[in-house]
Amino acid sequence: MTTPSALTIGRVAQSAGVAIDTIRFYEREGLLPEPRRRPSGYREYDMGTVARLRFIRRAKELGFTLEEIRELLALSADRHGGVEGVRERAAARLRAIEERIAELQRVRDGLSELVEACPGHGDPEDCPILKALVEPRA
């Protein structure tokens, strides 16, 4: 017998803004609890699953890995010390993003210099972009 708040996998996917395969993947990865099954074998979910999927999706959008999301989910259930741990993980993610941005800015600046130096015509052996890709780094 289904409960009045029971949702199908399709309804959960639609409500959370994810694909059905994503739900099954997160179940296999242990990010979602094993759903109840109807006598027919169909999965049966509740709105808590939708909230958890939204949490996972938003954490991924912020750059958290699945392992980090698993930790955040565990910390979110810790009513005593969880917030401190969540803040620490978010601060670590922020530092990693800032480091990545700095690296991308260095790459952008280097590529910009190469594009400026390349006349866009002539022999490939004289192309500063191709030379930079072949020569060892200084």
Automatic annotation (TrEMBL):
Keywords: Coiled coil, DNA-binding, Transcription, Transcription regulation. CDD domains: HTH_HMRTR. SUPFAM superfamilies: Putative DNA-binding domain (SSF46955). PANTHER family: HEAVY METAL-DEPENDENT TRANSCRIPTIONAL REGULATOR HI_0293-RELATED, REDOX-CYCLING DRUG-SENSING TRANSCRIPTIONAL ACTIVATOR SOXR. Gene3D superfamilies: 1.10.1660.10. This is Heavy metal-responsive transcriptional regulator. The keyword Coiled coil applies. Residues 6-75 form the HTH merR-type domain.
